[in-house]
Amino acid sequence: MFQPIRTRLLVSSLIVFALVLGGFAGVVRLVFWRNLQQQLTDRLTTVGQSAAASVEYDGGQIKVEDDLSIADLQRQQQALQWFDRQGNLIEQQGDVVLTLPLDPQALAPQRGQGQAGGPAIQAVTLPILNGDSGEQIGYVRVSQSLAQLDDTLDQLDWGLMVGVLVGLGMSGGGILWITRQAMEPIEASFQRLKQFTADASHELRSPLMAISSNVEVALKYPEGIREEDREVFASIASATAQMTRLTEDLLLLARSDRPRDLVLDPHQPALVKAPIDLSTLLRDLVTLYQPQAQASAIALHQTIAPDLTLGGEVDPITRALTNLIQNALQYTPAGGQVWVEAKALNQQIHITVQDSGMGIAPEHLQRVFERFWRADAARTHDRGGSGLGLAITQAIVQRHGGTLAVTSQLKTGSCFQVQLPMYGRGLAPGEG
Questions:
Q1: Where are the chain's structural domains?
Q2: What is the pLDDT of residues 105-141, one digit of tens each?
Q3: What is the 3-state secondary structure (H, E, C) of 120-161?
């Protein structure tokens, strides 16, 4: 019962932790990338300043001295380009050159491509000034391949990814341990509550039986009591019967929470799967409730395939199907219809109980199988019952290896669908 809660807590915590780690890794990568970019820009600026200082201006022409090491430029994956004031290329050294034309109006760091298919290149353009007059005489552009920077970023990405995964793995173990520690008191409290419910329901059976027996005796011999007292005794008998049904339902549900214990008597053995003629059982139930349907002006239809055999215990299965039929009749107004269908499909028995009643709102469909839950006050007080019928039906169906689902539309009706394994499928006979 608590495993889905643990799973949701673990998954939710891991998602939050993953978002935190992912955000942290993203910030680290962004800061690291900006620092690398700034360092590269500073380095290129230094090289460009040295290259600009090596230029001579003679007779209105720029002359580049050959004291720069081409080997150093190639080793650093750098290149130099000199331009006149109009942006015309005068000379270049190195192979890693930016193919973009020089833009004298944009001296900010540029990023582009070199040779086709080659790595990205970053370049810095600096003005060349005449050492004597201080007049600008041209431009120098120094560029460098970003292959090394990209390799560094790739290593950082892999490191961050591995770190995030390791962090998630370690945090998952820690979250699982914390969740288990936090859930233990809740589970223990819930187990005590279930045990109390089972014990209280069991202990209430005897005094309720005694009250019921005495009231029946009093009503059997009404000569010695007054008429008004007889009405009081009849009310006591009705209330006692209702309380008895409620305690039996609570006891059944308390035991259904424990595997192998969906039995009405605690001294009975666990569930024993024996063949049940489900076709005959459903037909008998439809026949049984035909008078009630006719009295309520409800058309009760049946489409039941022959030879449907289910493995299980007949009393719980009968109770589950009875709950569904009663529920359909109770919430269908006069002039409505109820359909009971059963067929075999893929080694499964499909049972459908559909009505044209008031229906259930979409936001309430997930709660129809909760204990004591009702969609509105009218369904609670005007229709009678303890509010445990569908919960009991679901417990019985699940105990027999089946599923119970519901679809509904307001003012159109509801459809309860039961799937149960045919006899010979699932658990072997005698297993519980």
A1: 3-153, 274-421
A2: 656 666 665 555 567 888 888 888 887 777 888 888 8
A3: EEEEEEEEEECCCCCCEEEEEEEEEECHHHHHHHHHHHHHHH
Let me know if domain 3-153 sits in CATH 2.40.160.
Answer: no
**pTM flag (> 0.90):** no
Report the CATH architecture of 274-421. 2-Layer Sandwich (3.30)
pLDDT in tens, 381-397: 344 455 677 888 888 89
Please state the length of the chain: 432
The number of beta carbons lying within 10 Å of the beta carbon of residue 103 is 12
Residue pair 64/46 in contact (Cβ under 8 Å)? The answer is: no
In DSSP terms, which residues pair with 343 in a beta bridge?
A: 350
Supply 364's token pair: 């309430």
Residue 79, SS3?
A: strand
What is d(CA 35, CA 28) in angstroms, rounded to the nearest whole number? 11
- Give the pLDDT confidence of 184-239 residue by residue, as tens digits: 887 776 666 666 666 666 566 667 777 777 777 777 766 667 777 777 777 787 77
Would you say the CATH fold of 274-421 matches that of 3-153?
no
